[in-house]
Amino acid sequence: MRENKKETPLMMRWTKILEPISIISLLGCGIWIFMGTPIETEMGFSQKIMYLHVPTVIVTYLAFFVVFAFSIAYLWKRDMMFDQVAKSSAEVGLIFCGLVLVTGAIWGKPTWGTYWVWDARLTTTLLLFLIFAGYFLLRAFATDREREARLASVLGIIGFLDIPIIHKSVEWWRTLHQPTTLLKVNEAGEAKPAMPMDLLLPLLVTMLAMLLFYGYLLFLRIQMEERYHVLQETIVKKEGA
User: Fold this and answer.
1) Residue 90: φ, ψ to 5°
2) Are strands 183-185 and 191-193 parallel, antiparallel or unpaired?
3) How far, in whole angstroms, is CA 156 from its chain's centroid?
4) DSSP letter, residue 46
5) What is the distance in angstroms between the CA of the first residue and the CA of the last residue of the chain?
6) Which of 60, 61, 139, 240 is most buried (CB neighbours < 10 A)?
7) Sequence spans of domains, the chain
8) What is the tens place of the pLDDT at every residue in 199-227?
């Protein structure tokens, strides 16, 4: 088994690049959304939370897909580097999944008249959050690092399988959520935007900014994880000397 004990200079460089870019991008998007985007006619000002809610959904999906992919890679290669990436992405993904639930509840109050209903999409999203909360609980109680990585990889793979269910829940069950509204297919079979461009463009830009922020958080967390394990091994060696 190979252990990655040195921080990758390329990753450190990208972390430093992404930090100012992602933060400035998010601040710029926030100003644009609150000052420059029009008020939606049906939902009013509360519609603006869409620009936070939808990008956090996209980042949550991506973060847990990274967990899924690197968990498979770990089980295949038994390289702790893959487990570190999976663990780091799961941590970021869990935070964003929590934001999805919170922003959805805030948006639900003016739209549905309540913060929470046991809607199919809400329930499956809550299940996703609980699975990955359990993922870290499992890691916290594992005594052997290889066993921790192996069991967490299995749970990370299983947890990701909830995401297709979340995505298709609006089609499989009766739900308050509407189907995806980014694109719609017309009678000619052409996919076109389902919302006006002055609403769609800031949403797409905010998605990009949020993805950059995810990249920054992921790289930062991986480096922290590497430093933690290097420090642990140094302590063990000193105690054994």
Assistant:
1) -65, -40
2) antiparallel
3) 13
4) G
5) 24
6) 60
7) 52-176+193-236
8) 889 999 999 999 999 999 999 999 988 88
